[in-house]
Amino acid sequence: MAYGLSPVRQANGGTIRLNNWVATAPTAYFEGDTCSLSSGLLVTDIGNGDLGALVGVFWGAEYQDNNSGDVKFVRSIPNGTVAKAQYKAYVYDDPSTIFKMQADQAANALTSADVGAVAQNVTGAGSAVTHKGGSALDSSTASNTQNATQQAYPFQILGSAQDDLGYTSAGTTMDVLVKINTHSWGRYDGNFPTA
To answer: What is the pTM of this model?
Structure first.
């Protein structure tokens, strides 16, 4: 089951940290959902094949319930939550953060040759039980080319995150390490690494 993006480490060796962002009243937010900005407010989540700048990955929120007036700290916010129009979201927003996510390994399976490639995402429903998002890496879109559209794919593949660091065959999901390729604070510069 896909789980969105989960922070693993900082590429620069620093500490993984969260920052606070003001967010709009949600449709649904789950741990591991990607976030972008709309009119200066945080919104989630990129859809299948969406391109564009991301500011990071959602990891929880603080909001005031309109019915009870209670301040709540949550790991996910289901659709239809009754909350004030704006609230505090916690986001991993450092562009050097390395994340783990599931690759779908659907039509075309990733191999070691895809390290450095960029890829799109496949959206999925988040879970109110685990609080995890449902996005995965779309392995069939992995590309090392310099096509302008592909340069705007949201994730860059850094390698396998499997226990044995191996790669699975098509039809068997696997964990991979990625960084946000289209990060608002560290945008892709157009120079793909050579394989």
So the answer is: 0.86
